[in-house]
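To close the chapter, one final illustration. This time we ask the reader to focus less on the individual chains and more on the assembly as a whole: which components sit near each other, and how the overall shape emerges from the parts.
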Amino acid sequence: DAGVTQSPTHLIKTRGQQVTLRCSPKSGHDTVSWYQQALGQGPQFIFQYYEEEERQRGNFPDRFSGHQFPNYSSELNVNALLLGDSALYLCASSLKGATIETQYFGPGTRLLVL
Amino acid sequence: GDSVTQMEGPVTLSEEAFLTINCTYTATGYPSLFWYVQYPGEGLQLLLKATKADDKGSNKGFEATYRKETTSFHLEKGSVQVSDSAVYFCALQGGSEKLVFGKGTKLTVNP
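The assembled structure is written out below.
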């Protein structure tokens, strides 16, 4: 049973560039959530996708956008990168409507903005 | 809004010592509570969970009890091992379904 996978594992960009991160959910899951984890901090919720639509959004600017595909995989896009966007980006998947919508995390993509 | 407060780290223990990491929360309603663990260079792994008052979550020798009266979910283990060295995150999931995390507590266990 494949768990949550993310690509790439590491990425280096420069300020002003754009980046796309990818996530494949755990088998049987239909909901994908994205989190940003700055160094030494707990993860912060960015947004959640279900049925190919953004369902919830945290306190992040519009530079952060996403997409969910019919196979439930998801992308996170960040435009006009800032130094402060350097972080570990975590994807989590869950099953909507489950008794407990437990979220399972992937290994993350570490983004460094120079 | 919802929030989670964890004890400040880092925590350093000797092997076989008793571990407690305190976690308290603020939330409307009755959230589900979780402990996640993050090993160096890795993502988060679910350690244990509890969904209602007085539930006890347990896994790999770790335990935590959902205490509604004190809004707490403290993590405990009777005898830690070097392999338990990691960062531990307490989190809640309320009606909005997103997870709200504490800042994490780094645990180092020395042989």
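The interface with chain B takes residues 4, 6, 33, 35, 40-45, 48, 56, 58, 88, 90, 92, 94, 100-108 of chain A (CB under 8 Å). DSSP finds no helices and eleven strands in chain A. With these observations in hand, you are ready for the problems at the end of the chapter.
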